[in-house]
Write a structure and sequence with these properties.
Helices cover 52% and strands 14% of the residues. The chain has 423 residues and is of the alpha/beta class. The protein folds into 2 domains: 180 residues, D-Maltodextrin-Binding Protein, domain 2 (3-Layer(aba) Sandwich); 190 residues, Periplasmic binding protein-like II (D-Maltodextrin-Binding Protein, domain 2), CATH 3.40.190. The protein has a 5-stranded mixed sheet. It is globular and about 65 Å long. The N terminus is likely disordered. It is found in: Periplasm. Belongs to the bacterial solute-binding protein 1 family.
């Protein structure tokens, strides 16, 4: 009898041990899931963007309750000034970071600061999800550097009622643009609103004049330092630009004005047009939105295929990220067409994923049409060029627009900047 009890006790003990082991294993598994961590570092330009990112993170948390998401957002200038230091931290970088496609991103990749995602790109079949032009600009030597999450158009905005009243059609060629400008001046209207206080709105003019005059390949080579600023082809660009300055086509006092401060001149018909990126669309007053039109930058050389500015934002995994599995889960989530469609609708930008819904906003949709017709995309002057060159170069552009530098003086200044960049 005692032996039976003993055997029973042993059996009970073994059963209890198995039960406890299984319970502990399940608990450990649950603890392991809840211990997953994802550190995000994002760039924002204002409270609205911050709110959209918060909602994006909340949606991810809902689908991935086992991952603890920690995130920090920084204003644009702070972010750009500190990103390389964050990537180089010896104790580890954030798991997912935001940046721009272009030469600067490729520079981080060349330095080994960015984790390759070729396997993830292939397993998710993202070559089919994103158009070739978008896939190209997020790659370095054929290798994807990050996930495209948004891009936007550039173009020339105008008030349709003003053009109709003056019998003006949106210009398609450079000569037509000059004629439109002179027609506006005859009515006492400055042809172009411009606020160049931040300098980059002036750089947009250089980009488009060079793209339309010399084409995308030369433009990329110039910004990457493979072509010289004192090249004859650049002199041609600056001569065209200088002609606009001589004709007084730009708003007086623009260097003391932000791009937002220049918008009322367009609204009140004190200026007839404005070259600006798609991010301007949410700024337009609701009572005027139906009267705002958009056309692409006119053709200068009909032999050149039309390339467009299409600044593209991406998310990437730093090489020193500690939580790669969670980082890849976040990229897979943000790549989905439903998420990209929602995110870009809220941001007023265009979803890179081909399966995402088209933009609902009329002007953003028109911008998407412009980009679909393009032969290729450029990022932007200060996204394609090292900061030590782009920053003083943009200062020189503004001086040129203010007639403080001639064409020859600007050419010499740009060549000197390239040879002796800011430290």
């Amino acid at each position: 009898m005692f032996r039976c009890l003993s055997l029973f006790a042993v059996g009970l003990s073994r059963a209890l041990f198995v039960f406890l082991a299984l319970s502990l294993s399940a608990a450990a598994s649950q603890l392991g899931e809840s211990a997953g961590v994802l550190n995000l570092r994002l760039m924002v330009s204002g409270g609205e963007q911050r709110q959209v990112y918060q909602e994006l993170i909340d949606r991810f948390r809902k689908e991935h309750p086992g991952i603890a998401v920690r995130h920090r957002e920084f204003e644009q200038e702070d972010y750009k000034a500190n990103i390389e230091a964050w990537l180089s931290q010896p104790d580890g970088a954030p798991d997912v970071m935001f940046y721009f496609a272009g030469h600067l991103m490729a520079d981080f990749y060349r330095k080994g600061l960015v984790r390759p995602i070729g396997d993830l790109w292939q397993s998710q079949q993202w070559n089919q999800a994103f158009p070739p032009a978008i896939s190209e600009i997020v790659r370095y030597r054929g290798k994807p550097m990050g996930l495209p999450i948004a891009y936007y158009h550039w173009g020339i905005y105008y008030r349709k009622s003003l053009f109709q009243r003056l019998g003006i059609d949106p210009p398609e060629t450079w000569d037509e643009l000059l004629a439109v400008g002179e027609a506006l001046k005859a009515e006492g209207i400055t042809p172009f609103a411009l606020g160049s206080e931040a300098r980059w709105p002036a750089a947009a003019w250089f980009d488009y004049l060079n793209l339309r005059t010399n084409g995308l390949e030369f433009h990329r080579d110039l910004l990457a330092g493979k072509a010289a600023f004192d090249d004859e082809r650049v002199r041609r660009v600056l001569s065209l630009w200088g002609d606009l300055v001589d004709r007084e086509f730009f708003l007086p006092g623009h260097s003391q004005m932000s791009w937002r401060s220049a918008l009322p001149y367009l609204y009140q018909n004190h200026a007839g047009m404005m070259l600006m990126g798609g991010f301007v669309v949410p700024q337009f007053p609701q009572q005027l939105i139906d009267d705002i039109g958009l056309f692409p930058f006119p053709v200068i050389d009909p032999e050149r295929r039309l390339a467009e500015e299409a600044p593209t934002d991406l998310l990437f995994i730093p090489s020193r990220a500690r939580n790669v599995t969670e980082a890849e889960a976040f990229l897979r989530f943000v790549a989905r067409p439903d998420i990209q469609g929602w995110f870009n609708r809220r941001m007023g930008t265009i979803a890179p994923n081909r399966q995402s819904p088209d933009p609902e906003d009329r002007l953003v949709a028109e911008g998407q049409t412009i980009l679909k017709r393009a032969s290729g995309y450029s990022q932007f002057f200060d996204r394609e060029m090292v900061r030590s060159v782009s920053s003083p170069a943009m200062d020189a552009f503004v001086d040129f627009l203010e007639r403080e530098l001639s064409v020859e003086a600007l050419l010499a200044t740009l060549a000197t900047i390239r040879q002796n960049p800011e430290q």
